[in-house]
Every structure is written in C-alpha cells, then in structure tokens.
Amino acid sequence: MGSAAPRSTIQVPERLGLTVPPGAEGTRADRFVADASGISRAHIQRLISEGRLTLSGRPVRSSQPLAAGAVLELDIPDAPPSAPQPEPALDLTVVYEDDDLLIVDKPAGMVVHPSPGHATGTLVNALLARPGGYGMTAGSERPGIVHRLDRATSGLLLVARNDRAQAWLTEQLRARRIKKTYLGLVWGAPPAATGRIEAPIGRDRAQRTRMAVVPDGRPSVTGYRVRERFPGWTLLELDLVTGRTHQLRVHLASIGHPLAGDPAYATGPARRGPEGLGRLFLHAWRLELAAPSGEGHIRVSAPLPAALDAVLERLRAEGGPGGPGAPSGQGPRR
Known about the structure:
The chain is of the alpha+beta class. The chain has seven helices and 15 strands. Strands 5, 6, 7, 8, 9, 12, 13, 14 and 15 form a nine-stranded mixed beta sheet that branches. A four-stranded antiparallel beta sheet has the order 1-4-2-3, covered by helices on one side. The model is unreliable at 1-13 and 323-334 (pLDDT under 50).
C-alpha cells in the first residue's frame, strides 16, 4: 500500500488559551475549540479524551456546553513529523481476515498508532506494510483503527479494511455489541467467583497521566469470573463492558486486587508480580462480534503469550491451582 503524502501541520503554540465570546454560549466544547483553533474536530476530541482541555484547571468533556467568558486551556502535544510509513520488518500476527476486517494479535510493548515519542515501530507501521487498504475515517495517521490496547497489553485488536467496515465497527463498539474478554492475573483472592464492578472513571486530578475512580467520571462497567486460583494470586476472565482508558487496571486496583506487574496502579508485591513476570499480566484473549457483512458471527481467541503462560506454570508448580474455573490443560481454553 502506498504511503499517503504528509498532511500540512497547523502551527499553534504548545498551550493554547481560548475565551468563549458572547453569542457562542451553549456551544459544545469540541466544536468551539475546533472552530477557534483550526484543528480538526476528531483530533480535538482525542486531546479532550486525554484530559488536555481544561477550564479552571478541571478537564472538560467533548459534549460540555460552554458559557460566555469561559477561558479554556488546550495542551497540544508535538505531532509526529509525517504520515506513518510502512515497516515490513515488523512482525504482525493475523488471526482472522476477511474482506472487511483483520483481527491481529498485538504483542506487548508495541504501540497501536504513531504518537509523540512513538513515530515508528507501531502496529499501524506494520499494517501499512501489508497489501490491501484500510478504512480512513479516523484519518491517515490511524488507518483501520477502531479501538486501542495499551502498549503493555497484548492480544486481539480489530482493524477495518474499508471505510464502511470502520464506520460499522465503530458504531458496534459504541453500542457495546462487540464482546471483549481479557485474561488478567490479579493480586490476592477476590472472594466471589463472579463479580461486576460499576465505578465511574476519569482523569486523576493529582496525577494527570493516570486515571482513577472519581465521582464525576464516565460510567464504567467491568465483569469478572475467577478462572484459576493460586496462593496469593488469581487468574480472572474480564469482560470489558465499557471501554474507558485503563479501565480494567483502574477497576481492579479500586477493589484491592490490582493486576500483576502494573507499574501505574499497583504497589509492592503486586507491582513486582510473581517470579518471572516482566510485564503487565493483561491479555486481550477473545473477541465476539457479528460480521460486518451481515453473514454470520465471528468468535476469535488468542492464546496467552509464552512468557505469561510460563508464569502460570510456575505458580501451578509452586502451589497448585484451585477454585472455580481451573483448566485441565495447558494455558487458557480456546
């Protein structure tokens, strides 16, 4: 696939102050800032989702109506210098493919799309090296991308192969019709075999790079089932009902069972993880969705990476599995 020509860059300061003039009251924040700055509304919405638009020091929602005289501050990170380029040397594991979509198994450590500090080596760079096209409704910097995984998270990711599929998948995600199930190893022993966490998530006001359970956050729901128990640790199946930034990590930490190896939301032994763990123990294991073509149902799973499976094998050897959901064979069931 040929590379797109670099888009012109709007020259704006790193921190932009905008005052809402009389007559503009009631305008949505994302629309007002896009019109006033000349930056695309989609890019403004991404910046807002990262907590980069504030009013009196507090994050602003995209849909928030503004009052006349309000003074907004927009933090604009450095943009990648050019459109992403194909990188054939990057490995890409495709676990499902049809005319409308790919499902890839992203390795831990790979960023999904170019961003400040990560202009190369991303999943998008690997995708561009494959023949064929992708949906471009999210812009040339994110061909085919409809959702993301954290850099430290491995597992399944949907990629749209055309604009129609990208719009359809985006709407399915918004309507919560795509089931995303993760495997995560957590510190401690959740008392119930199944559970549901409903707690609003927003930007942590004390540490802007983190998320937290906050009273005025966005509604967020996580379901879990105990799959296997070990002394000091529990392997969970996790249903990502909503899709907030760092949702699983924040929710599990909020109930006292942070994910093993989480450098941001865990402390002490949980942050270090069990012996042999060198990364966050979180893997996007299974995806279930209706086919964009309307013909049939897609259900795909990706086995745990060998490094995570080895951690479980060590725990089994040390203390033995127990409790609900203990599998009879190696690794998670497909």
